[in-house]
Specification:
Two copies of one chain form a homodimer.
Chain A (H helix, E strand, L loop, with lengths): L15 E2 L3 H15 L10 H8 L3 H14 L2 E4 L3 E4 L7 H22 L2 H18 L4 H18 L3 H20 L5 E3 L2 H13 L3 H20 L1 H4 L6 E3 L19 E2 L1
Antiparallel strand pairs in A: 1-6, 2-3, 4-5
Helix pairs in contact in A: 1-3, 4-6, 4-7, 4-9, 5-6, 5-8, 6-7, 8-9
Chain A binds a DNA duplex through helix 3.
Chain lengths: ~260, ~260
DNA sequence: GGTCGCACTACTGTCGACAATCATACATGC
DNA sequence: GCATGTATGATTGTCGACAGTAGTGCGACC
């Protein structure tokens, strides 16, 4: 007797997708960079990290090469790998790429008139609204990035989702690389409201404009031109972490998961 | 006495960028996939390829992980890595991503009114025109992909260029994966002419439309819906290669190059 | 006093080897 | 005859070890 939740027309046995050890390590490294456990510009101590993860250097190095390909780690011969620095000189490049990915995702959703997709984005937007009521800068930043990833993911394009998952971490790295520390704007929800409204109106050009405006604001915040111009925007700053030697969790082989 | 070509205001010593062995191997693997030396779905025989490249398995595996991240290789635990198959079920996803990247690149060029960028694209277009006069399917395909990469590269965005360099190989893989073999349309230049004209007119929407149309045509060609509909388009087909065991060239450490 | 040179240390880059796993072919039983 | 089980071969995944290299601190020399 099949499980009740199994669809009748589904294939008898789904293709099981066993993540390889390298997959797990790569995910762990991305999370460590995203959370700041691996600080910007810090060298990747292979022996130490491999010991913390409970693996050898070989699979660790292989996983790290994936992050090098993503641009999250930089490799110099003889000097190993370091967590990439996303300085002010790279902000335009990064956020222009985000505009490309996110505007097209919005266009796809609108072209398809995909109500379910909008609902997913709405859900992420609601979460952002609730989080923005508090003063936890990191939580707000997480909700912000979650919203943008939800937008791209709702477009249901594997390529764009993959790009975005890296862009999210790169954006976080840009914040960490900022001299001003980790800062989020208090009025962050306003800028997102425009995107949300355009989606609900099925207005592709308005959505693209809203996303572009949002990215310009983000670059302005990170470069600090607002302060220079004397424009005052209320912000929330996270107190700098002790930046101590954060330990990474050991790799635990999960049970077989469905793809 | 400095070299005449050195700009006077340039820094005294440029940062030399020494490519690592893994860089070289990764490039070699990408070229092998692009050229078809590594056939679609073929397993990556590590010992054999490492021997051909004159390196050990370790750096080869590290380089291969970069291609796994790009999606050019697929890894299954216990079965190693294989050259990815880009079947018909993934064509929409792939070409939708190309639309996202290429339309935004065109928008960037047009927004900036970048004449030099248009000239670069024009140059690639001219080369495509000359090549399309012949009947070498592979050469036409190369010129086609070169054109699209030149378009994105002219936008001068590192992220988009990186995405596109992978998308180019993925597109080639889609052709190799096609049941119909490697086929290019004889009227391929017409479709590019629309893109080129829109760029020269600084018309962003027309460029986006032309690029979208071009991708639809490409998907139609690869899925063969044109034949099914009885629409006849003149094509050039490449005779299938012997698919023999193509040998990869050994890795030779190049001299120090400027970044 | 500053700069150059040298030795030491720590780490990376690469290799070969071993064990575990998977695919294939063959033999066996129903 | 078909399905099941088994043995074999090849290949992957992982590890430890070694050599080469970059960084660091100290000392000597100009």
């Amino acid at each position: 007797m099949p499980h009740p939740s199994a669809h009748r027309n589904a294939p008898a046995v789904l293709r099981v997708h066993r993540p390889s050890t390298v997959d797990l390590i790569a995910t762990e490294l991305r999370n460590a960079i995203y959370s700041g456990a691996l600080a910007v510009r810090s060298p990747l101590r292979e022996v130490e990290i491999a010991r913390q993860l409970g693996v050898s250097r070989s699979p660790l190095r292989e996983a790290a090469q994936r992050l090098v390909q993503e641009g999250l780690l930089t490799a110099k011969p003889g000097q190993g790998m370091r967590v990439a620095v996303v300085g002010e000189d790279r902000l335009d490049d990064l956020f222009e790429a985000r505009v490309a990915v996110e505007t097209h995702a919005a266009r796809m959703i609108i072209d398809k008139h995909d109500g379910a997709a909008v609902a997913k984005v709405q859900s992420a937007f609601d979460h952002l609204l609730r989080t923005a009521e508090g003063n936890d800068a990191r939580a707000i930043g997480d909700a912000d990035l979650d919203f943008h990833f939800a937008l791209v993911d709702a477009a249901d394009n594997a390529h764009l989702s993959r790009y975005m998952s890296t862009l999210v971490v790169e954006t976080r790295l840009a914040s960490f690389s900022s001299k001003r520390g980790y800062v989020v704007r208090k009025d962050i929800t306003q800028s997102h409201h425009g995107i949300m409204a355009a989606l609900q109106d099925w207005d592709a050009e308005a959505a693209a404009d809203a996303i572009r405006d949002h990215m310009v604001e983000a670059v302005d915040r990170l470069t600090g031109v607002l302060e220079e111009r004397g424009v005052h925007v209320e912000t929330v700053t996270e107190e700098p972490t002790p930046a101590g030697a954060y330990a990474l969790g050991p790799i635990t082989q999960p049970l077989t998961e469905l793809s």
